[in-house]
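re: ur question from yesterday

yeah so i grabbed the chain u mentioned. its 83 aa long if i counted rite. heres the sequnce exactly as i have it in my notes:
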Amino acid sequence: MTAQRTITEEIGEIGVWLTGEFGGRVPAAVISRVLNASRRDLEGRIDPEALGEMFHALCRFRLQRIVAEDQRITISIPGARQS
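ran it thru and got these structure tokens back, copy pasting raw so excuse formatting
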């Protein structure tokens, strides 16, 4: 018989995975806030069996959106040559 993982363990693993994926582009504090907010948004609204998958999808979407917004920000220095 295999031991079933708890939802807390599954969410913890997803957090580690997403930190590895986005850690170089998004500060750890922002990743943590996204994880916590996403869990609060989903708990009690999603069937427990689907919570892990939905949590991963929601967090990843939110982090991708943060990265995309950062990439749209450009810094322009007046009088500087464009390369």
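noticed a couple things. The chain has a mean pLDDT of 85. also The two ends are 62 Å apart (CA to CA).
anyway ttyl
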